[in-house]
Amino acid sequence: xxxxxxxxxxxxxxxxxxxxxxxxxxxxxxxxxxxxxxxxxxxxxxxxxxxxxxxxxxxxxxxxxxxxxxxxxxxxxxxxxxxxxxxxxxxxxxxxxxxxxxxxxxxxxxxxxxxxxxxxxxxxxxxxxxxxxxxxxxxxxxxxxxxxxxxxxxxxxxxxxxxxxxxxxxxxxxxxxxxxxxxxxxxxxxxxxxxxxxxxxxxxxxxxxxxxxxxxxxxxxxxxxxxxxxxxxxxxxxxxxxxxxxxxxxxxxxxxxxxxxxxxxxxxxxxxxxxxxxxxxxxxxxxxxxxxxxxxxxxxxxxxxxxxxxxxxxxxxxxxxxxxxxxxxxxxxxxxxxxxxxxxxxxxxxxxxxxxxxxxxxxxxxxxxxxxxxxxxxxxxxxxxxxxxxxxxxxxxxxx
Length: 400
Ligand code: HSE
Fold this sequence. Notes:
By secondary structure, this protein is an alpha/beta fold. The protein has three domains: 2-130 and 299-315, NAD(P)-binding Rossmann-like Domain (Rossmann fold); 134-295, Dihydrodipicolinate Reductase, domain 2 (2-Layer Sandwich); 339-399, Alpha-Beta Plaits (2-Layer Sandwich). It has 14 helices and 15 strands. It has helices at 11-22, 24-31, 59-63, 80-90, 100-116, 134-140, 155-167, 171-180, 188-192, 195-209, 228-236, 299-315, 351-358, 380-387, and strands at residues 2-7, 35-41, 55-56, 68-73, 94-97, 121-122, 146-152, 239-249, 255-265, 277-284, 288-295, 342-348, 362-367, 370-374, 392-399. Helix 5 runs parallel beside helix 10. The longest helix is centred in the N-terminal third of the chain and has 17 residues, at 100-116. The protein is elongated and about 75 Å long. The mean pLDDT is 95. L-homoserine (HSE) is lined by residues 129, 154-156, 183-185, 191, 196, 296-297.
C-alpha cells in the first residue's frame, strides 16, 4: 500500500481523490499495489466530505509521517506550494503536481533537489490538462532533436475564441461561461493575458531543449486585443485566430519562445482544435511533425494526468524518471522578434499605402477606411519599422 497526501482540496485536488477512489482497482493493478489517500491538507473545513477524517491543516504532520511516500501538490501558485514542495522533497517524498506556475518558475531548483535525493518531481498535468505531453516529449520523442514546438495551451482562451468564431459571442460572455464551467484560473488575467500559456510553453521548451526557460524571458500577449472584427476578417481569408505558445530552436542552439494570438491556416494541424481542447505540435528531426490533442482543462481530465504520475512515482520510488533539465545560461534564448513569419495587420489606411509599405500583400477586406491584410514573411523588428506610419489596430502572426 502506498500512502499519498494531497495538498489543496480544490477542483484538481478533489478530482484526484475522486479518480483514486473510482478507479481504485485499475490503479492498484497498474501500480502493483493499492494507493490510498492518508491526508488532505487544506485551510478550509469540509464537514460534509467523505474525506473529512483525513483533513489536516498542519503540513508538518505529512512531512514527519514516514508512511507518506508521495505528496500531491494541487494548491497552485508559488507561495505555500513552493515551500511545501521543497519540504516534502527534503523529507524524502516524491512530489506530483499540476502547478504550472511553480514548475515554470522554480522547476530547475525543485528538479535538482529531487535529483540529489533520487526522488521524482512529476508534472504531467501542468501542461495540456489530461493530454499526454510531458512523457511523450521526454520519453517517446527522446531519440529526436526537436527544433520547434507550438500549441494551443490554454483551454479558457481557446473556448472564448471558439465562441467568438462559431457563435459571434462577445468576449465577456464567453469568459463568464468558461469560468462557470471551471476551466479558468483563479484570476482571469492569467488566462486572457496569456500568462498561463506562457508558463506552459516554458515547461515544454525547457523539457524539449534541455535548459530552464523562465517566464520573464518570454514575450507574452493574450487575447484581450482580439475583436469580433479580427475574427471575421481572418475567416474571410480562411484563417482562425488562436492563442499559441511557440518555441523555435535556432541553428546555433538558442531558443526563441513567445506567446501571442496567431492566424492559423485551415491546413494547419491546430485549425480544428476547438473549445476547451488543447493541441500541441512537436517537430523532431526523425519523427517530423506530431500532434497531441485532448482536454486541456477541467477537474477529471487534469486529475487523470495527476493520478498517472502518482502511479509512476509509486513504481519508481528512489529510481528517477528522466524528466529533467539544466539551469538556463547566456546561450539559452534569443529574441523572438528575429523570427520571420507572415503578419496579419488591421489598420486605418487604404490598400495602396499598405502596398507601398509592404509590397506584396493579401487583402482580406474591411469597411470604410479600415483595412486588413497579410504581409510576406518579415521579422518583428522589420515589421515595426514599417508600421510606424500606419497606426495599426491589430497585429498578429500568421501560421499556415
Ligand atoms: N486555466 C487553464 C486553462 C487550466 O484554461 O487551460 C488548465 O491549465
